Amino acid sequence: MNTGLLNQLYSVAGKTVLITGGGGGIGRMLARTFLDAGARVYITGRKAEGLQAARAALGDPGELRLLAGDLGHADGVRAIVEAFRREEPRLHVLVNNAGRTWGAPFESFPDSAWQNVFEVNVHAPFALAQGLLGSLESAASDEDPARVINIGSVYAETTEVMQAYSYTASKAALHQLTRVMARELAPRRILVNAIAPGLFPSNMTEFVLKNPEHRDATLASIPRGRAGTALDIGGLAIFLASRAGAYVTGAVIPLDGGLLINH
Fold this sequence. Notes:
- The chain is α/β, with parallel strands linked by helices and 263 residues long.
- It has a single domain (13-262), classed as NAD(P)-binding Rossmann-like Domain (Rossmann fold, 3-Layer(aba) Sandwich).
- It has helices at residues 3-10, 25-36, 48-57, 74-87, 112-131, 133-139, 165-185, 206-209, 212-220, 230-241; strands at residues 16-19, 40-45, 64-68, 93-96, 146-151, 190-197, 252-255.
- Helix 3 links the parallel strand 2 and strand 3.
- Helix 2 packs across helix 10 and helix 4 runs parallel beside helix 5.
- It is globular.
């Protein structure tokens, strides 16, 4: 086995990675993966105490940095951009993971659930890439472009959305935004892709996984018969962020154990 080639293809050692919503769920899984792979990782969160809890959960690794800011507001996005740029001249990988959802019956679904959800799930990924464009360009090369990885959802591709109307619409918008940004930024040596996860443990899915009836029904709809793990999403993210993924852009990749096969 040519381990040298494998290391060259899949290495992210020394790269700087910014992960939004890195305090829990998929964000924390990705932070752990990139840290273990030798990257310097910045994670964002709305509250300082949440970020400190994430640091403790991740074992307080030396290459972890914390950035507080609320991505539901333009001022919060600007604060994160400015704080990052004060610390780092280059950004190799931007992972737009922070997300918000809202569930309610059709008849009572509130107007506020639309602006609130779209601000975090659609506007913030665009605004962060826009604000950090210079940092991404500084990190990019012909051989190893900079990367933007948007975390979408398989629920952008199915109608079984558990009354989360604005969430599914926002993730569908993020998938299309991924393609548009990929076309725009490829000449600048920045690749833009999306991962569309299915069921992964997180605050958003806790109500499913803790309810035996809901959990069993959901797992029965997944051909692999289980929820996703940190290795599942971490492996795909490392591929997209490394030399192995340097010819992939504009892709929306389902990571769902086969859920969409049945839809």
